[in-house]
Amino acid sequence: AELLADCLEFDADLVVTGLTPFERSAPVFQVDSAREVLGTPEEIERLVTGTPTRWEGPTKLYSSTLFDGLRFREGTLYEDLELCPRVLPRIRRAVVRADRLYGYRQRSGSIMDRTRAGLSPDLIEVLERNIAFTNQHFPPDAARRLRRSFLVHAARSLEYLAPGDAWTASRGFRRAHRLFISRHARSIASDCGLSPAYRGLMLLSGLSTNGFRRAFAVARWSKANLPVTLRRVPSPAARDTTVREGSTALTPGT
Fold first, then answer.
1. CA angle, residues 91, 54, 40, in degrees to nearest 5
2. Which among 85, 183, 114 has a CA at the least distance from the CA of 122?
């Protein structure tokens, strides 16, 4: 009801909330009245390029008109990620809520449970298709920002892949990841929107995912124990300027 109310109040095509994971007991939802209205192509693009990214399908209320002629690709994992850039140009206005009103049950044996146990090379196929789509259908600057987001998504997936059985089960993903990063190595190396250290880590992952894991573990330890900062982007200030430029933050009564 809250999402529908925002949709009607702001004449929005999309309303986004956050996700609250739970297992057996009922979820404890995080309620927050703050919300942000996105109304320009650059602002709406941040649903994919911002921090955090907002591409997950279940946490959104969509206008049905956004899906005219669009459907999820059957039999492919990460189908909501693949559809995301195809939906973006159709959105006139979006509302992003600060709360977490979508309850996500963690169920043993589900597709997502199997994904957490090991990543599928489908993720790399989806990211590659997304890059090809954005290169063809978006202006060059927007395509570059979206491409960066998809490349970082692959690297972050590798970051959070647990060692042990999950790492071993993701052998196909890791092979596809190396090829993916190698194909886009020139773009990564020249992307000033990424910090030099993280560019180096991403390029290393194109040579060796094991090397990436070890180097990232060292970098994470250094960040926790030494006056060292590891960022994916050059600086938080630059990121915040990009995220908030031109946006309108709204709370009830404004």
1. 35
2. 114
Cβ contact 172:190 at 8 Å? no
Give the tokens for residue 25: 């007991």
**Where does residue 103 fall: left (phi above 0), alpha (psi -120 to 50 degrees), or beta otherwise?**
beta
Instruction: For residues 243 and 53, give the distance between their C-alpha atoms in angstroms, rounded to a whole number.
Output: 11
Q: Residue 175 has which token pair?
A: 């092979």
Strand stretches in 86-184, DSSP E: 94-97, 102-105
CB–CB of 221/18 below 8 Å?
no
Which amino acid is residue 49, in one-letter code? T
* Cα dihedral value 193, 236, 156, 180, nearest 10: 0
Q: What is the pTM of this model?
A: 0.81
* CA nearest to 115, candidates 161, 175, 57: 161
* Three-state secondary structure call for residue 79: helix
pLDDT 10s digit of each residue in the chain, 254 long? Answer: 788 999 999 999 999 888 777 667 676 677 777 889 999 999 999 988 887 777 777 788 899 999 999 888 877 788 888 988 999 999 999 999 888 777 776 655 444 444 456 899 999 999 999 999 999 999 999 999 999 999 999 999 999 898 898 999 999 999 999 999 999 999 999 999 999 999 999 999 999 999 999 998 888 888 778 776 667 877 544 443 333 333 333 333 33
